[in-house]
Structure formats: structure tokens, C-alpha cells
Amino acid sequence: QVQLGESGGGSVQAGGSLRLSCSVSGDTTGRVCMAWFRQTPGKEREGVATIDGDGVTDYALTVNGRFTVSRDNAKNTLYLQMNSLHLDDSAMYYCATWRWDFCPGFAAAPYTTWGRGTQVTVSS
After folding, report:
1. Using one digit for the tens of pLDDT, what is the confidence trace for 55-90?
2. 26: left (phi > 0), else alpha (psi -120 to 50), else beta?
3. Are strands 10-13 and 91-97 parallel, antiparallel or unpaired?
4. Which of 11, 42, 64, 111 has the greatest count of CB atoms below 10 A from its CB?
5. CB neighbours (10 Å) of residue 90?
6. What mean pLDDT comes out for the span 97-119?
7. 29 with 42: CB under 8 angstroms?
8. Pick from 41, 48, 23, 42: nearest CA to 107
């Protein structure tokens, strides 16, 4: 059983940066796909970035060029570096994973394990 725990959220002004972390504990054998999602009240969970077992990354168009996903397998930690933050980046951010090394894209349904989320608030 894998458990995920996000941290690093907070309040930042537009144009600023934050780095989110997602610690992975439990059965961490194998390099599986991991992803970052975000959600605002009343909206569906939106895929932001994925990184597969080989370290290949993919980004939603809305964050491409501003966000960077990375992983430190030795530390069992996933990261999301967020730069040039916009007001509409404000959301609860979640990390997620599933059992395979390839990523199923940005739809939330295939991911089977989720963290509790960390809030990011961007203000003007």
C-alpha cells in the first residue's frame, strides 16, 4: 500500500514561485508513473504534470514552460517547481500514482492513489 503526502503549498504573489513536494511511503518498490493534479471548488480535477518510470515528463498546456515536475527516487519524493505563477494557478494541488511505469495521461480516473492535497493561493 502506497501513501502520498503533499507539502509546500502556500500563498504567493502573481509572478512568484513555489515548490511542492510529495512524499511517497509504503510499498515504494518500482518506478511508477506519478502525477500532479489540481482542483478548485466546483471544477473537475485537472491534470497538471506527469512523470513516468523513466523520468519522461508531460505537461498540461496551461503550465507548460512554467512548471517542472521531477522525482528523487532515492528520497521517494516527487516535486513540482512552479514559476511565473498566475492567479488562475490557485487551487488545491494533489499528487497521484498508479501501479504502472507508463502514464495514463491527464485524466484523473486511472490514478488509484492520491494524497490529501496542499493549497496554493496566488494573489495580485
Report:
1. 999 999 999 999 999 999 899 999 999 999 999 999
2. left
3. unpaired
4. 111
5. 18
6. 96
7. no
8. 48
